[in-house]
Task: inverse folding
C-alpha cells in the first residue's frame, strides 16, 4: 500500500493546535481520551497485518500480527519458539489506548515479524500507581504461562509513559520472577515523573499537563518508589535497550540521562537522537517518512533481539 508523505512543516502546523486542545490539563480526562481515539483515525496503518482482540490477565489487548501468503503468522503451537512484543502505550498514564497506537503497533508487527500485543492497562486517576504496572506484569506472565512464549523471546516496548512502564515492568519481572525480557524498545520514555521539564512545552506536551498526569498516576502513593520512577530503580541486569528521543522534546535530557545510567550499569544501549521531529512522532509514521524510518530502526533492533523463527515456518 502506497503511503502518504506530508512535509514536516505542514504536519507540525496541524499537530501543534491539535495537541494544545487535546492534551490540556483543564480538559477532563475522559474527554482527552475520547479525542485521542478520534484523532487516531488520521494515523493510517500499513497493509499486511492482522488485528485480533483478546484478553491478557483480564485486560483487553489488541494483537497485531504480520500476514504472509494471506495468513497471519501467529500459531498457538509455535509460540515457544516465536518472538513477541508486549507494547505499552503512552499518554501520561491517563490517556491513550490500543486504538491510539494501532498504526504504530501494526508497523512494529510488520517490521519485526512478530505478534505485537498492545495492552489496554488501567489508567489514572481512576486507577493510580501501581495499577498499570500490575497489569503489565500480569500480561507478560500470561504470555509466558498461558500462551507459551519463552520470556527471553518477549520484548517490552513503549512510548513516553509506556516507555517508563516498560522499564518498570522489566525491573519487576527480573527482581520478582527471574524473567529477563529479550529487549526494551523505548520511544521517549518518561522514567521519572517527579522531574520538572526544562521548558514550558514542546509540540505535543506541556509542563502543566505532564505535572497533572504525574499527580494523577501517583495518587496517594510514594513518588520515590522505583516502580513509579524506574529511572532510579535497579538497572543492572536489564536486557539490551533501544532509546529514541528528539532533541526538541521535553523529555530529551531525561532520555539522555537514562541512556548514560544504563551504560554505567553495563546494559547494552542503542540510542537514536533526531532533530526536527517531535514527541512520539512514530504515531504519525504513516504520514511522515523520517518518523517511519525511526520506527523501523527500533523494529530492527527488537527483531534481532527476539530472533523469531521464519515467518513461513509460523504460517
Result:
Amino acid at each position: 500500500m502506497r503511503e502518504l508523505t506530508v512535509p514536516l512543516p505542514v504536519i507540525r502546523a496541524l499537530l501543534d493546535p491539535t495537541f494544545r486542545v487535546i492534551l490540556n490539563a483543564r480538559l477532563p480526562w475522559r474527554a482527552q481520551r475520547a479525542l485521542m481515539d478520534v484523532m487516531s483515525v488520521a494515523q493510517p496503518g500499513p497493509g499486511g497485518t492482522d488485528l485480533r482482540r483478546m484478553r491478557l490477565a483480564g485486560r483487553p489487548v489488541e494483537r497485531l500480527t504480520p500476514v504472509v501468503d494471506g495468513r497471519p503468522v501467529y500459531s498457538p503451537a509455535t509460540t515457544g519458539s516465536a518472538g513477541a512484543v508486549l507494547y505499552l502505550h503512552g499518554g501520561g498514564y491517563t490517556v491513550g489506548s490500543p486504538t491510539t497506537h494501532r498504526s504504530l503497533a501494526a508497523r512494529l508487527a510488520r517490521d519485526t515479524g512478530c505478534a505485537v500485543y498492545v495492552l489496554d492497562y488501567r489508567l489514572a486517576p481512576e486507577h493510580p500507581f501501581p495499577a498499570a504496572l500490575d497489569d503489565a506484569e500480569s500480561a507478560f506472565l500470561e504470555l509466558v504461562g498461558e500462551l507459551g512464549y519463552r520470556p527471553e523471546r518477549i520484548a517490552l516496548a513503549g512510548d513516553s509513559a509506556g516507555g517508563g512502564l516498560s522499564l518498570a515492568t522489566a525491573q519487576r519481572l527480573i527482581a520478582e520472577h527471574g524473567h529477563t525480557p529479550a529487549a526494551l524498545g523505548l520511544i521517549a520514555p518518561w522514567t521519572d515523573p517527579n522531574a520538572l521539564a526544562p521548558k514550558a512545552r514542546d509540540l505535543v506536551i506541556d509542563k502543566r499537563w505532564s505535572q497533572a498526569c504525574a499527580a494523577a498516576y501517583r495518587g496517594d502513593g510514594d513518588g520515590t518508589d522505583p516502580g513509579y520512577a524506574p529511572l532510579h530503580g535497579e538497572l543492572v541486569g536489564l536486557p539490551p535497550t533501544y532509546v529514541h528521543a528528539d532533541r526538541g522534546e521535553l523529555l530529551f535530557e531525561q532520555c539522555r540521562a537514562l541512556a548514560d545510567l544504563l551504560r554505567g550499569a553495563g546494559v547494552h544501549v542503542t540510542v537514536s537522537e533526531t532533530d526536527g521531529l517531535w514527541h512520539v512522532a512514530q504515531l504519525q509514521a504513516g504520514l511522515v517518512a523520517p518518523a517511519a524510518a525511526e520506527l523501523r530502526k527500533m523494529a530492527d533492533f527488537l527483531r534481532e533481539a527476539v530472533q523469531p523463527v521464519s515467518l513461513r515456518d509460523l504460517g
